[in-house]
Amino acid sequence: MEFLLPFIGVIAGAGIALLINDHRSSGIKLLLAFSGAFLMALSLFDLLPEVYEHLSPKRTGLLIMLGILLQIILEFFSKGAEHGHVHMKSSNKRLPVLLFASLALHSFLEGFPLQAHQTLIFGVLIHKIPIALLLTSYLLQSGYTRPYITGFILLFAIMTPLGTWVSILLPMSENLVYSINALIVGIFLHISSTIIFESGEGHKFNLTKLVAIVSGVAVAFLL
Predict the structure, then answer these.
(1) Domain count along the chain
(2) pTM metric for this prediction
């Protein structure tokens, strides 16, 4: 599942983008809110206690902050694609290279904890569906050809399974594994909190969005 489900999430999101015309619909925003809350809750319930148990508190906090800073740097190049914000112009053909490089690194790191944390697989799956949907929609609107977009999406789809495969293949000490996981906690917390606060109009909460967020937390708790 750690190899297949993240890949399916990207392909499903891209497929939905080909079927719908309105990528700004409230349903997508609610799915983003649910996925953000779900991913944050899984990080807090599963990854965070583990890294604090095996690493010193100060080192853990530092690595989490480095993960947050790393994600901020990646978003400078991806234009926020990891949490559903992509702004492209068809005249700027170099942007997808930077976009893919930042998304690829983010997705690659995302795959590292999946082999040892099965519940996170579902968090990554649900996270990838709306992101792939919005990314595909923007690529289509920016005038890129279907073969180019297909190749881009397929490469994006394999990066998380590749990260999982590398994490299994490479011999790593426990200390290094937990250090990487702490870094990924920071990445997840930044992305999920940004999704939660940006998925509503005017950054305002409404009842429907609140229900989506609470549902995401509840489902994560029950897993």
Answers:
(1) 1
(2) 0.85
